[in-house]
Amino acid sequence: MEGEPTLRLRIFDLNCWAIRYLSKRRQERVRLIGDTLRREDFDLVLLQEVWSEQDYSDLKVKLAGCYPFSHYFRSGVIGSGLCIFSRFPILDTLLYQYSLNGYPYMLQHGDWFCGKSVGVSMGVRAPLLSLSLQLHAEYCREKDAYLPHRLVQAWELAQFIRHTSKAADVVLLGGDLNMHPEDVGIRLLCGWTGLRDAFAEAMHFEGCKNGCTLVPDNCFTDSSELLPFPLGIRIDYILYKAISSFTVKCEELKTTMGPAPGMDIPFSDHEAVMATLHIQRQGQPVGATSGTADLVLADVVTEARTEVGVGLRAAQRQRYSSGRMAVLALLLLLLQAAAALGTLAGLGTEQPFPKLSFCLLAFLALGVLVLATGLHVFHTMEVKMLHGTEDQMRMALRALQEHP
């Protein structure tokens, strides 16, 4: 940004819902996204749920002329699904995978297998830190079993931004946060990092009412998820903040509205978010936050810590249950081994159980032992991560209260 008093930056963010074999009309929609991006004049494109590397490769070839710089972030078993396309050079990249990503035995959800992450790139014509990310899905708002995990992810993301943005002039975050604007996770992320919501700050807005990105009019949206929210929900965001002596203003924010122009289908089950930002150097560095803001943030941290504590106690109960099941299975195997040895040693006149039943029971006990041990190890790790996050929040809360 040296020598340029103002930089105008156009950003495109979209959860593409491009799951191979499962997403409807995936290849057609990926081609449509590529055609639109090639036609439009964006500077930075942040995409999520591009699960197929072939889809990314096809987009990279199609967009090479207008977005010569790109990166695909790989993580987990099936990949993070995150990628970035840019008109300007990407100087460096980094992938941070959250310590908690749901449960491996919840196969119908699959968040654990993709390894939810945040992908970071540094560069784009200035010391600009851009992040594309996705947090754990909610699935059921009334009984949100994943809320503690999502709060841990939001806290880790906030800490990550605080510790990696010192060399940047501007931080830009786009992605599917799977949280409503009033949720504690969003308030924690924005309060702890100073990020500002482009929707709330935009001087001009055009798109779905209230900036919603999951809307009932979208033919790919699961209508059952929106029953409590007839107008839709906003879970996709573009957030930003300026560091040092820069200011950022959101001139315009848009969302897509259903089918793409001239087509009978939308880009995805999510609406795209497009922002136009003005980045300008100012005379003096940005000042610190006020004491009142710190007190409000302390309340948010307290609320988040309470929810994490609830998740911690639930994880401790699951760890105890799986550990007890593993011990019982081990005892059963030992009893069977003792009975078998007794029979071989001639202490019994005959096999106490039919051989087939005896073997089936042994295999069942062994299976339960392996499964329960695996669950016990997983929930032990979960307890450690939740406990560690709770300790960090306690420390941050004490600092806010003692030194506002």
UniProtKB/TrEMBL annotation:
Query: Which coarse location class applies to the principal site listed for this UniProt protein?
Result: membrane
Keyword list (alphabetical) reads:
Hydrolase, Lipid metabolism, Magnesium, Membrane, Metal-binding, Sphingolipid metabolism, Transmembrane, Transmembrane helix
What EC number(s) has UniProt assigned to this enzyme?
3.1.4.12
Gene3D superfamilies cross-referenced by the UniProt entry? Endonuclease/exonuclease/phosphatase
Which pathway is recorded for this entry? Lipid metabolism; sphingolipid metabolism; Sphingolipid metabolism
Spell out the SUPFAM superfamilies in the cross-references: DNase I-like (SSF56219)
Q: What GO cellular-component annotations does this UniProt entry give?
A: membrane
Q: Which GO molecular function annotation, any one, does this entry have?
A: metal ion binding
Q: Where in the cell is it found?
A: Membrane
Q: What class of enzyme is it?
A: hydrolase
Similarity remark: Belongs to the neutral sphingomyelinase family.
Q: What is this protein called?
A: sphingomyelin phosphodiesterase
Native source species:
Picathartes gymnocephalus (White-necked rockfowl)
